[in-house]
Each structure stands twice: as C-alpha cells, then as structure tokens.
Amino acid sequence: MSTSADSQPETAATYDASRYERPSVTVDLAIFTLKDRELHVLLVKRRNWPFEGHWALPGGFVEMHESLDQAARRELEEETGVQNVYLEQLYTFGDPERDPRTRVISVAYIALIGADMHQLHVSDESIDVNWFPVRELPGPLAFDHSKILDVALSRLRSKLEYTTLAFQLLPEVFSILELKHIYEQILGEQLDKGNFYRKIKEAGVLEPTGQLREGRGRPTHLYRFKRTRADADFVFRWREAKVEDEA
Amino acid sequence: MSTSADSQPETAATYDASRYERPSVTVDLAIFTLKDRELHVLLVKRRNWPFEGHWALPGGFVEMHESLDQAARRELEEETGVQNVYLEQLYTFGDPERDPRTRVISVAYIALIGADMHQLHVSDESIDVNWFPVRELPGPLAFDHSKILDVALSRLRSKLEYTTLAFQLLPEVFSILELKHIYEQILGEQLDKGNFYRKIKEAGVLEPTGQLREGRGRPTHLYRFKRTRADADFVFRWREAKVEDEA
DNA sequence: ATAATTAGTGTAGAATTAACACTAATAGAT
DNA sequence: ATCTATTAGTGTTAATTCTACACTAATTAT
After folding, report:
1. I need a surface site. Which of A9, A22, A72, A201 has the fewest CB within 10 A?
2. B123 has pLDDT over 50
3. Phi, psi of B185 (to 5 degrees)
4. What is this model's ipTM?
5. How far apart are the first and last CA of chain B?
6. What residues of chain B lie within 8 A of the CB of A20, using their CB?
C-alpha cells in the first residue's frame, strides 16, 4: 500500500495537499429540451484552440466554494437563464488526454428543460449558442463531448422506462398523446396508443386539469403531472428496463 | 455567461489554468465480497486527523498521468492485491465540506471480488484493513463514506436485477442455489427456488462443468458463468428493475 | 351530410409470474 | 437394510400483465 489520500493520511500538522499536482475539475452539461416535436440538445460553438469552430457541451470550472450540483446549476442558469429544472449527475470523465491544454476532469450532468421554457434566454439567437436535434448534430463535437452525449442519451432512454423523467420535457399542461410522443422520440420506437393510455392512467401520475384543447379532430383532455414528491422521480414505469450501457 | 472552461476558452497564448484554484481529486472504493455467506465491504482504519480511529473506504489521489479507471484499479490492487475483478464508476461526491483538510472531490467506484479471491492480500490480518459485513459496520464511517456506501449498496441492488453482476461475487464454479443465495443476500429478500431454477436456466448464462459436489444431501451440479462478452454484463435479468435512489 | 382527423376504449390471446406441491439423491442413524 | 433428515431439482396451475388490433367518439373541413 502506498500513500493514499484517505486511507493513509498525514497528521494535521504535516498534511500538505499541494504536494500533489492537482487536475482542473469542470462540469459539462447535456441540456435537453423538446422543440418541434424533436429532442434537442444545447451546444456552444468554440471560438478558440483547441477544437476551434467545433460545437461543445456547455460547461465550466467548479469553484472552490460550491458543490458539484451547485456548479452545474450555476452553469445551467448562465447558459439558459432557467431555474428549477431537472438536473442529475451523469458520469465523470477523466481520461488524461481528453483536453490537450491540461489535465481536466469533467463531471457530466444531464438537464431537462420543459418545452415551454427553452426560449427564455437562448432566444438571443446568438450564433454561438444553439439547440440542435440530437439526430442531426453539427459535426463531431469538441473534446470527448460526443461520447458524453452518447452516454447521456443512453441514460435518458434507460431512466425513461422506470421514472417519470419524461414529464420534465413537457410544458405545464399537456395531453396524453403528447407524452406518448416524447417516449417515442427518446426511445426511438413506436408505442401502442391503447396500451399507453391504460398504463399511464393506472400509474396515477396524471392530474386532470379539466381543460380541453381543440384541434383538427376530437378535442383532447389536458393534464398536469401530479408531483407526489418534491422532485420528479420513480413513479411511472413505462415498461421494464432494457439495457443501459453506461460503463 | 461568465468565463467557463470549455464553452468560453481563452486562446492558446492566454490560456492559464493556474488562474483557477484547483481541488484535489481522489478515488474511493466500495469493495465487496462474499464471506461466510454474507456480503462484506473492505474498510481501512484511519490513524490520523481527521476522523482518527474511524473506518473509511480505501482510496487515494488520482495521479496526473492516469485515468480515473486506472487510478481506481491501482488503488484496488494496492489494497487487495487482486487483479481482473469487476470495477465500475459509481458517482462523484463533491461537497466542499466533505473533507475538513481541503477541497477534495471523490470519484467513487464499486468493485466486486469473487468469494475465492478475497483472502489473497488482506489475509495479513492487519488490524487496519478488514472486511466487515455490510449490515454490521464498525460505527459511522469517516468523511461522507457512509453515504457513499449507501449509494453503492443501492446501485448494487438495482443492477443485480438486470445484469449478471452477481456472478462476480461467486467463485469460479458454483451451484445454482449458491447463486440464489447471493441474490437473497443483496436483495434482502427470499426468492422462490423453483422459479429461480427455471429463470436462470432459460437465461442461458450457465455453463455446466459436469462436476458434482457432495454435501449433506443430494449432490449438486456445478456450473461456471458463461461469458458471452469479455465483461460481465447485461444478460440475465432476475426480474424487472425496482427503484434505484441514486440522485 | 359526409369525409378526414385526432382522441380514446375494449378485448382476447399470448406470455410471464408467483405460489407451492411434488420427485430425486445423498449421508447418517437405528 | 431401512428409515429419516437434508439438500437438490422439477412440474403444474391460477393469476397477472402484455400485446396487438379492432372498435367507438368528437371535432373540423368540404
């Protein structure tokens, strides 16, 4: 056993963390929303070396006084202006070669923004910050961000099946068929209408608003998500989980 | 939008990572094995401030040249001497107060050691390194390690249900009822013998060795785990996934 | 009116699960 | 040598859940 941080620490007097070279730590965010009935991810364009001109996931350094979650939420607000949206830690990427500048360890997060909120800040139409459909990205991303995005999508698909995560992508009120559409978007597969109706109703996570919305055909009932806990989670399982390739 | 590492980088000329104060980064490991038919975790006793005398998860600093996985595997080998065992990243803990000495961000890993390998190195019976049954720990752990261990156990239970992870805790050859016992240990619940036999056989992940082992009653057939991929994963699902509280 | 369109319900067969009764092969006791 | 305890392993059935698809409902456009 050689020297190690927690198992073989020094005394308070002799402890000196600066003996060890330390990496930079950033948070990077895969921020998703639903636009034009398609799943989109927020990307920023790099203006400098390395990967100049490539698109990247938004992110930034973790400051010394804040937790990882706080850092992620701060970056999220800086990029989008939104608050109180779903945020969850995804995975930590630490390949020593992932950033050519210096050793950077990135703690990646997933954020989901409701379909009624995605315009707030990014609407300045800056050409450097934009939403892209996940199935039509602007070339390979900077750093290992393509890989991070892959892992994020994989996690998203997996969690969709046993959590109520999908609701986070919808506006405050929505119809059942809109919800079904999200599942189809993320899972990339067609679902049966009848079975979906039955299952989602059994789950008891829908709160009818009483409202109707008129459209081309029969008007649809509108619902909101019944929050049984403060946070969105673990109530409705569309079906049993399939494989999540996360390692 | 303020300055951020990846989205608003400097030019190569002006880039200077040392402007930012950097945290220390460690890996901490929840190393599990099966001893005396019970799930055990490896702990090390702290000899210095802070948490002197408390038990902690083994771990150590990430070095500048190695990836996180490499750091975890190095620490694992240093503590236990074992190689080629199951290792997976769990979660990253970054509360600024989690270590009173300095800012330390810990990337936590789970490792599973087969029942026939857990004696190799730790057998020196050092009073500072020892296996403990997870349901009978020696007091509250140092730092936030109790929380890390909770998350690890939760993840373990969850993945057990849709992966072949349990095999990693068994010796090279084993009986079906021994496998069932592991599931019961980790899930904390009794399973039906008949249903277990049927399901595990249907799954086609068992390779009969032809061997029999005599015991008190009828001799049992011995099997080994049929590795369909290099890594252990994603073949046998005992039942559909329950809740994993990981956030 | 009638067709087109979107919303929503019913239902029957297939597949899976859960509970538990049953059979099998050994060691040790009588 | 037979009986009993013990561990191993199989069969069966009823209940539940899933799947596919046919059907009914309410509106707008023509």
Report:
1. A201
2. no
3. -60, -50
4. 0.83
5. 27
6. 24, 61
Phi first, then psi: give them for residue A151, nearest 5 degrees.
-65, -40
List bases in chain D with any atom under 7 Å of a protein Cβ: 5-12, 18-22, 25-29
Tokens representing A26 are 């950033």
Q: How confident is the model at residue B19 (pLDDT cuts 50, 70, 90)?
A: low
Q: How far is Cα B170 from Cα A200, in angstroms, rounded to an integer?
A: 40
- B194 CA to D9 C1' distance (Å): 8
Cα three-residue angle A207-A210-A211, rounded to 5 degrees: 115
pLDDT in tens, B36-82: 878 899 999 998 889 999 999 999 999 999 999 999 999 999 988 88
CB-CB contact of A213 with A219 (8 Å): yes
Cα A63 to Cα A60: distance, rounded to the nearest angstrom? 9
Query: Alpha helices of B107-175 — where are they, by DSSP H?
Result: 145-160
The per-residue pLDDT for range A99-109, each reduced to its tens digit, is 999 999 999 99
Would you call A87 exposed, middle or buried from its count of C-beta atoms within 10 A (0-12, 13-18, 19+)? middle
